[in-house]
From TrEMBL, chains A, B:
It comes from Labrys miyagiensis. This is Zn-dependent hydrolase. One of its GO terms (molecular function) is hydrolase activity. Keywords: Hydrolase. Belongs to the peptidase M20 family. The lineage of its organism: Bacteria, Pseudomonadati, Pseudomonadota, Alphaproteobacteria, Hyphomicrobiales.
Length: 414, 414
């Protein structure tokens, strides 16, 4: 049974973990390389030729029947967050491998070459950025990022070299020969589960803007400083947290496409029960399918932060953009093929945005790209409880298989 | 000049500091004991007999002319916070010493014994509680507190023994022979400075109630969890921070006596930019001259915290009283003597509450007690910039001197 084969692979790769905290296979560690060696053997067993590209991505390739055609590619990542799950990343890779096996089982020859790509360090690492391999492949890993160091002082460039990459050659996109890119991923949310659905047809991957906002007041004695003399930075921060939430809900209701905003981090100094907070720093992030909505939100947030500072009698001492990635819409024609494939399999689907970033987001810059989701139990992810049923994983792999056959036959893709 | 003598003592004691972070003389350290040896020599030079009591308080005593009378006592503390100032504590002690010297200079014999008391560990230490020596003297240091350990695992009881105390004997108040207690302290706020005033006549020392409030939501993915499925603990916390401020201002305006409230601490988990905060913990404190106002505030705060939790769809998982000290009103007759002394010296005064806790707060449980404040430049305290002018320090000492003479002659005090 194909379900069994895919499931056994998922469970086997999960066994390659730091024993003290299952499931952990962080990029740039020996454990990660152990996982890759296992993966390379599976690729080879399935008849793929394997190589590492200059970005440190492991690629398994099956040549196609028609020479000169660009490749169809399926990819995701084998690295995990610390104490992560078994599905986020591996499922997309091993479902790609399952597509290769199904082609072989059914004796189907594709016109296009087919590649399965394990992108390097999709998860944030100690060096900072996420999606290192897909950035490298698409020309978005710049010298500044390559120079970022982990806490031990090692630059990312050296860490990539340890993983077999050739970062000194990363001066332009590595590929112009990809006809279409597909990624299967767990949803990491509860929309599919709550709707009793099988497959999420992704409309696009959100862009993400993060901004650090700092309020500076005066760290006065909490007993002796009357209200009218206070400059309480935490009061300003609290005000802005509520405004950011309200503003986010307003955008979510009134703008087309997915929009979400979160204040996830707060840091207060001196953070002592008997001292008026003199400094508060917030990290607010917004995610949207449309770049213009990110811009508009940040503009309104900046105004709200000034108002919050003024009301609390403190200074808004910083409004500092920390990172920004642009939204990546999924290709309409690929979405149609995925929808048709799911329909053929009588699976229940919904169209939804991806609120999380994925390697597919970068691949969308160099090729038509689309994604599908399978359900996550209770929406849990990045934790050992992450779970998708065997049949749900298999359904995702079948959709990929059917879609690859359809795309292979669509002259729009070569 | 007496000013010079007092000032030179202040500056000399300040020199006994951890050199890396002036001014630091934390209790339970060798540096603290070095300061105490210096102080003991000054006490002895001024003709005081010195001893350590069972609570580890250093006491210098001058016998009085009439046998059987209870003591007049002046006290404060020689320990500091880390990177603290030169005045918070030492000024009250050295002004007491100056009173002794002025009596000698002017050949004045008191009827009552006079004691100058250096209370052990007025500042919070690594063992937790503040005002350890004055709690011990007044019977408020219980077995639970004595068992508290510092991060290295040493119990407070052992640390006190290292300082020369006999904590095993602390089963009841140590003294029933104090006729009156006076403390001079820096204001640690800006009321005197802003009013161009010399002396603050303290009406009472606030009681302090601290409560830890915890909101438990769900630490979901910040990209994939739509607003209607969120349980954001930080949103509830922000709501409560604003409500606590508003409620505090309302109490301050509408209740008689001083009232202030502060949210000084916040802790958020996981505190990551891309995760909806799953847990937020706040520390709210209220300070009031009247115990009933603390009770009423906590009651309203508890209701507000439930409302904030409900609005954010999270659980208010704890509303945990952390500490409580009762208000300590200053004795009216002592206040009159202090006011008369300041008047005689043509000093400008104001009546105001002490929003900070002091050893005098505990001494008020076993004897009539009163305090005066001298100005703090820019209200700064617990920092190296803490400053009071030499003439302002001297004025405070003169008020103490004149008041001691008056109290000594008042038959209400024996």
């Amino acid at each position: 049974m194909p379900e069994d084969r895919l499931w056994q692979d998922l469970m086997a790769l999960a066994e390659i973990t730091d024993p003290a905290k299952s499931y952990t296979r962080r990029c740039f560690t020996d454990r990660f390389l152990e996982g890759r060696r296992w993966l390379e053997r599976r690729f080879a067993e399935a008849g793929l030729t394997t190589r590492l590209d200059e970005g440190g991505n492991l690629i398994g390739r099956l040549e196609g029947g028609v020479s000169g055609l660009k490749a169809l590619a399926i990819g995701s990542h084998s690295d995990t967050v610390p104490s992560g799950g078994r599905f986020d990343g591996p499922l997309g890779l091993l479902a790609g491998l399952e597509v290769v096996r199904l082609l072989k089982d059914r004796d189907v020859a594709l016109r296009h070459p087919l590649e399965i790509i394990d992108f390097l360090s999709e998860e944030p690492s100690d060096y900072g950025p996420s999606c290192i391999g897909s950035r490298a492949m698409t020309g978005f890993l710049d010298a500044g990022m390559l120079g970022l160091r982990n806490p031990a002082g090692e630059p990312l460039q050296e860490a990539m070299t340890r993983m077999g990459a050739l970062p000194e050659r990363l001066t332009a996109p590595l590929r112009n020969d990809v006809a279409a890119f597909l990624e299967l991923h767990i949803e990491q949310a509860r929309v599919l589960e709550q709707g009793g659905l099988d497959i999420g047809l992704v409309t696009g991957i959100v862009g993400i803007a993060r901004v650090e906002i700092e309020f500076t007041g005066s760290a006065d004695h909490a007993g002796t400083t009357p209200f009218h003399l206070r400059q309480d930075a935490l009061v300003a921060a609290a005000d802005l947290i509520l405004q950011a939430r309200r503003l986010g809900e307003h955008f979510s209701r009134t703008r087309n496409g997915y929009f979400i905003a979160t204040t996830g981090r707060i840091e207060v100094h001196p953070n002592a029960s008997n001292v008026v907070p003199g400094l508060a720093r917030l990290m607010v992030e917004a995610r949207a399918e449309q770049a213009a909505h990110l811009d508009a939100f940040l503009e309104e947030l900046a105004l709200a932060s000034l108002a919050a500072a003024s009301a609390a009698g403190v200074e808004r001492s910083a409004f500092r953009p920390i990172s920004r990635s642009e939204p990546s819409p999924c290709d309409g024609r690929l979405r149609d093929h995925l929808a048709a494939a799911a329909g053929e399999l009588s699976l229940k689907t919904i169209s939804l945005a991806s609120g999380a970033g994925h390697d597919a987001g970068f691949m969308g810059r160099i090729a038509p790209m689309a994604m599908i989701f399978v359900p996550s139990r209770e929406g849990r992810s990045h934790c050992p409880e992450e779970w998708t049923e065997p049949a749900q994983c298999a359904a995702g792999a079948r959709v990929l298989y059917e879609a690859v056959r359809r795309i292979d036959g669509d002259i729009a893709f070569g």
